[in-house]
Every structure is written in C-alpha cells, then in structure tokens.
Amino acid sequence: MAVLKMVKISICALKESRKIILETLQSLGLMELICLETEEDYFSKTDTGGMRRNFERNAALTEQALSVIRKYVPEENDLFLSLKGKMLIEKKEFQKVIDHKNEIMEAVMKILDSENSIAEKKSEIQKCENQIEMLVPWADLDISMNEEGTSQVAVLIGTMSGDMTLEKIYERLGSRCPFYTSASIHMIHSEKDAQYIVVFCMRSDVSMIEEALCAEGFTRPMHITGKVPGEAKAELEEKIGQLDKEIEYEEAKIRSYVMYRKLLKELGDYFRIRAEKYQVIGTLPQSKNTFLLSGYAARTDVQVIEKAISSVADCIFVAEEAESDENVPVVLRNNVFSQSVEGVLESYGLPRTGGLDPTAVMSFFYVFFFGMMLSDAAYGAIIAGSCYWMIRKFPGMDMGIKKSIRLFLYCGISTMVWGVLFGGYFGNIVDVVSETFFGKRITIPALWFVPLSDPMKLLVYSLAFGVVHLFVGLGMKGYLFLKESRVADFVCDVVLWYALLTGLLLLILSTDLFASVAQIKLLFPESVRLIAAGLAVIGATGIVLMSGRKAENPAIRLALGLYDIYNVTGWLSDTLSYSRLLALGLATGVIASVVNQMGSMLGTGFAGMVLFAIVFVVGHALNLGINLLGAYVHTNRLQFVEFFGKFYEGGGRPFEPFREKTKHIEIKEEKSS
C-alpha cells in the first residue's frame, strides 16, 4: 500500500557513450526520460527522424512478411494464444539475429516480391476471366469478331435487346429500310437481356442497314478480338492455367520461408527497439563532446540504475528530489494479493503524487463483496480453478492480464467461501438431484444461513458491511489529514462525523423499526443511549459550527455548516447502496434454483436425464456469466462511488519508462556464471 517516492535523475556523459548508456537504460526499463530545454548556444539536438523512420519502415516490412507467411502457412490456431505472452529468448540468441539482419531482410524482400507477383498474376487472371466471360456468348461464332467481310459482302456483329426475335428484326429492318438489296441475320446466342447476332449484307447497303438496326437498339460489342472467339477463349484459358502454375510456384517459395517466421518476429522487435532509441536521441541536448539526459525513477531503483550506468560508461550521475510543481509520474508497489486490483484502481485514476494508495484496503473489500454477490461454491470453484490453471499454464502472459486473472482467482475463492456459508452449490442442485433421481431429499446445510430463507437477515448484514466500508473510507480521509499535519481538518471533518454517525447508528439500532426489520431486538442500557445522543448532538453541532470555518462572514459560515449537515442523507443513500449485496446474492441463488427446477420437469428416465443435463449446462453457464458480470460491475461501483467518494483524489500520471517496447519477444538477460 504505497505510492513510491520518485526522484529526478540527471546524467551528463561523453557523446561517445550515448549509445551504450541509452541501451542500458532501455534494457533496465526503470527510468522515464523527459525532454530537457537548454540554451541553443551551448547545446543542440540531433535530427534522427530519418534513422527512426528507416527502422520503423523495416519493422513494418517484417510485419508484412509475417502476415504473408501467416496467410499461406497459418500458425497454430490456439484459443489461448493471447495468454501465452511474448516469446522469451536469450540475449545471445537475439544478438545472432541482429548479426544476420541483412540476410533476413533479403528474405523479407523476396517474400514481399513473391506476394506482389502473386497479386499481379491474380489481377491478370481476373482480367482474362472477364475477357472469357465476354467471349462466352460468341463461342459459336466461327469468324473473328473484327471480320469486316469481302468487297461485296459486309459483316455486322453486335447485340440487340432480349425481346427481339429473328422475325422482329427482319420486320423492323424491312419497315425502316424497305429498299435494301438483301440481308442474312444469324442468332449466335440468346439470353433474357440480350440477343447476339451476326448480319451479312451487301456492302452497298451496310450503312443503311446498320443505321436501321441501331435505331432498334443494335450495339457493337465492347471487346473485339482478332481471332475466332472459341480460339481466343481457349488461348485465355491456357494463359490462366499458366498463371495458376506461376502462382503455385510463388506460393511454394513463400512457404519455403516458414522457417524465418521466428527470425522475422525477433528482427522486427529489434527494429522497434532501435526506432525507440533514436527517437530519444533526437530529444537529447548535445554539445560537441557531451550530452545531457534526465528523467524520473523510483527512489528504490536509483542504486540499480547508477550501478548499471557506471559499469558501462563514465558519467556524472545526480539523483535529487523533484520540484513540487513538476508533473511526476506515479508508481504503485503492493503485495501480490493487492497487486491484482491495481488495474481496477488505474481504470478509475491513479492517486496524485504524494497521495494515498488505497489498493491494499480496497483489495480486501473488493474480494469480500464480489464473493458475497456471487455466493455459490460451485461457481466459485469453476472461476478459481480456471484462473489457477491459466496462471500455471501460461507463466509468460502479459503482467496486466495476469493481474486480472489473479484477481478473479481470489474472487473465485471468496465466492466459494460465501457459497459454503450460504449453502449454495449450483443453487440447490443437491436437493433437486437427490429428490428427482433418487427419491430421497438430501441437503447440504449452510454453515451460516440460507439467504433465500432469510433475506432480511442478509439485508441487515449487507448494510452493516457497508457501514464498515464507509467508515474505513472516512478513516482513510483522516489518515491523509494527519499525514499532512492538518489536525484541525481531521477533527472537524472526520472526528465530528464519526461522532454524529456513530450516535445516530446506535440510536437507530435501539428502535422498534430496526427490530421489526432485522427481527432482532437490541436492548442498550440507558447510559449507552445517552452517550449515543450526546455523540450525535456534539457531532451535529460541531459540523454546523466548523464546516464553514474558512469563511469570515458568520452568516455564511453557519449556512455552510447547515448545508454540510444535510450530507447525512448522502450517508444514508450510500449505506442503502449496499443492499445490492442482497440483490445480487439472491439473484444468483434464485436463477440457479429455477434452472434446476426446469431441468427436473421430465422427472426420471433417459429423457429426463438428457433434459436435465442440457438445461443444467446451458442454464448455469448463462447464470454464471450474467451474475459474474453483475458482481464485477457492482463491486466496482461500491469502490468507485461509495468508498472513493469519502477520501480518494485521483489525477496521477502513469509511469512510462524508457524500455524495450517489443511486440513478439521478451529478451532474457543471461545469468552470470
């Protein structure tokens, strides 16, 4: 439960050591670099944009080559691929890839050339297929499509609308040019939308006949070949066959590079690392012989950074406290259990610099409330078992994913505990199965009580847990005040509220209304009731008088105090919000019981067992999914709205260290012998 103290590190070294120092810092990944502004008369910055873009381009080329190989030789389709994490390789192995980068890049260019060649050939095939499609209707034509005829006879080749028959064509031709000498019309192909015809006529009549036909919708074909259509079609099909063989050859060449897949991933990440380094180099102030570098790191990591830098280069290394007005990043450090909810906290907002990290306290309540909302031992066992298996099966998974899975592991264990306390095992599955299929009702008793039988009891405990949660939040606000030596604020804004709320709570617990709701009669001694009333009066009076203490005008001060005392209704609203623990807990049990009853409707026998199995699997899977989502959402809400609203101030900036940002691999440092 800590926000690590950050320090500002400044390094000055010879320019010749720039590369090794940056590579060391990048390998460590413990320091966030910042851009320094210096006087241009003494320092300047190197334009490394060209080098950076070159490395980025090479990284993009390796990624393109990988996608090409993946297209023709798909990687194993693993459902849990995202959980496997990056490949872990030795630094010595990575160096071998770097040494052979030119050879690997040659393979990249050959892969991409083959892919481009395939694309061109496929485009050519598509073009040929389009030409064939246009030639198909003319397949029975035994002359070339650009045939013009003889000196005496002319040839017209074209199409007319689909409703035109030979009789209609002759009829229209006769009506439009009654004085033509002769014409012979042949129907080559007929379709619904077009008629493909050839017209032979005297050359002296060709202009008149073509004009008459055009008036009736005659059009020349767009694609004309100098060969007989059947022969042209056969040549195009032969060309497609040849192109297909060439494509198969290029595809085989690409498949032969499948052994480069791992090398391409490693080389691509090498280029990404280099691009990141040159981007940083472009921001460093440099003189003729030296350069400056500055950034933030956790105080606990300063010695590690200094030792690593000193071992590779001579430099001036200065670590100092950051100025109060600097935008210092935030780093959290918690135990393994609390680390699991850091992602939940980050989704809300990191604590501000010098603020309080609530992760440790929040983690306990988060797991506690989540299990209470789901509250089924069987569901909890499924969640915990699945998460435990994933953590053991995929140790190299991304740290963010691992934290989330570990969170659900703890929530699953909590759900199991609450399920045992409430007697929930797939709802009432033991009761239903024993009574339906064995004729004798067997019940696993709850270690505490059954919520479906006593919902008011669960409501009282839900509200009680909520009060504890809210009081802890108020206590953390008081801790912040004391940490900052704001004793007056601690007394006025925390102690007085504790007094008021505690007094009101004790008074409420002794009323008949509470006894009727909780079915528990609490009899306090008169002295306790007097103390409770006194606490309430002292707290209320103090809040009215002190909440507006910063205002100089007494009237405004009193008005602010009266307004603040109205916040009691907010505390009541927040407390009632914890009734969702009751609602979600009952929903899980009720839906599970309904699923079990539906599955047992056909009773015993083969059909009954089949129906029960189907309904059991589908129904409980849906119930688990819906209520798992509900528990997650509402647990987050209790933290973000009710708990954080009492003390938490976000606004922190996440720590973004200069590190090796890779996509496929993780470089493992060699162990010293």
Task: Note the main attributes of this structure.
single chain; 673 residues; alpha+beta; 4-stranded antiparallel sheet; 3-stranded antiparallel sheet; 24 helices; 13 strands
What does this 3D model show about the protein?
- Strands 3-8-2-9 form a four-stranded antiparallel β-sheet, covered by helices on one side.
- The mean pLDDT is 91.
- It is extended.
- The chain has 24 helices and 13 strands.
- By secondary structure, the chain is an alpha+beta fold.
- Helix 13 (359-374) packs antiparallel against helix 24 and helix 14 runs antiparallel to helix 15 (399-422).
- Strand 6 (183-190) and strand 7 form a beta hairpin.
| Percent of sequence in beta strands | 5-15%
Number of helices: 24
Largest sheet: 4 strands, antiparallel
Number of strands: 13
Helix content estimate: 55-70%
List the strand order in the largest sheet: 3-8-2-9
Average pLDDT works out at: 91
Distance between the termini: 36 Å
Instruction: Please state the structural category.
Output: alpha+beta
The backbone outline, from C-alpha atoms, is: extended
- Give the C-alpha Rg: 40 Å
